[in-house]
Structures are given as C-alpha cells and as structure tokens.
Amino acid sequence: MMTKNDVEKFRIDKWLHAARFFKTRSLAADAVERGKVQINGMRVKPSKTVATGDKLMIRIGPYQYEIEVLALSNKRSSATEAQKLYQETDESRKAREKLTEQIKVQSQQFYTKGRPTKRDRREIERFRNQE
User: Fold this and answer.
1) Does residue 97 share a domain with residue 84?
2) Are residues 18 and 73 in the same domain?
3) Residue 13: is it exposed, middle or buried by C-beta count within 10 angstroms (0-12/13-18/19+)?
4) Which UniProt keywords apply (predicted)?
5) Do 60 and 123 fall within a single domain?
C-alpha cells in the first residue's frame, strides 16, 4: 500500500524535458526561471511539482503552447511516448500554425540569392541617389 509520502514527485523542469519541449533539463529550468512557463496561470520555480490536470502555458521563441498535463514522467523517451504526456488545446495549435505561415511568408519576401548582380547594383545606386 502506498502512502502519501511514497508518491513520486515530478518537477516541472524534469517533466518539460521528458515531454520533449526542451532538449536538456537545464534549458527547461532556465525557461521556467525566466517566466516562459506558467502552471495554471502562475509563474513558478523549476522545483515546482506538476500534477495531472494542470494547465501549462509554454513560450518557446515566437511560439506559445497551451497544454493540459495528462500523464507524469521524469524519463525522456521517444517523441510518440512524450506526446502521450500532454494534450494541446485546439486554439493553441491553430495560433501556432497561423504564426508559422506568417513567418514563412515574411522569410520568402526578404530572401535573395547571394550577391547582387551588376544590374541590381546599378538599380541600388539609382535608388540611393534619388534620396
């Protein structure tokens, strides 16, 4: 029979590493420390324990994930196993997909191949001289 003290504790930094949101536990701990991870809308420390049913908000770069914890684990395993630990909300997934498309469109607008050609350089010079 297990008592309350025998239940294993699952730290948020270890869980984030096991769920494959961060490559290392130290990166996960840094993100939690800098306020990039919130549990149930509150900023927490890396040692905070996580429980099933908790709502997490995780910011990684420009992306934001809103997830619900479904299972607990401290061990990092395959990506398919890690996805069973949480469920992302539909709004979060749609917002991330929309942001991905916007970033893709913006990067295509400013993409150029290497150095400008002689013709391009002449056009640049004409443009600068007009100012």
Assistant:
1) no
2) yes
3) buried
4) DNA-binding, RNA-binding, Stress response
5) no
Range(s) of the domain holding residue 46: 1-88
Residue 2 pLDDT greater than 70, yes or no: no
For residues 55 and 38, state if they share a domain: yes
Are 28 and 59 in a shared domain?
yes
Whether 86 and 68 have beta carbons less than 8 Å apart is answered as yes
Instruction: Enumerate residues 6+ apart whose C-beta is below 8 A from 31.
Output: 16, 22, 37, 58, 59, 60
- Residues across the chain: 131
- Overall pTM surpassing 0.85 (yes/no): no
Q: Collect all residues with Cβ–Cβ distance below 8 Å to 86 and sequence separation of at least 6.
A: 19, 56, 67, 68, 69, 70, 71
